[in-house]
Design brief:
The protein has one domain. The chain is about 25% helix and about 35% strand. It is built from 1 helix and 3 strands, in the order αβββ. Strands 1-2-3 form a 3-stranded antiparallel sheet, with no helix packed on it. Strand 1 (about 25) and strand 2 (about 35-40) form a beta hairpin.
Length: about 50
Amino acid sequence: MDLCDENYFHLIKIAPELRVLKGQHLSQVNNAVDLYLEILEQTRYTTLLRFL
C-alpha cells in the first residue's frame, strides 16, 4: 500500500486535476520530452491511465 500512496503522490504532482481529467492530454516543456497522458477509466477510488 505504501507504494500505491507514493505513486499517487507523484502522479498528483504531475496532474493535480487528475480527478476531473478525461481523455488525452499533452504536457510540453521547453527542452524536454513531451508527456502524453490518457485517462482510460475512472471510478470513485481508482483511475486507469497510460503515459506515452
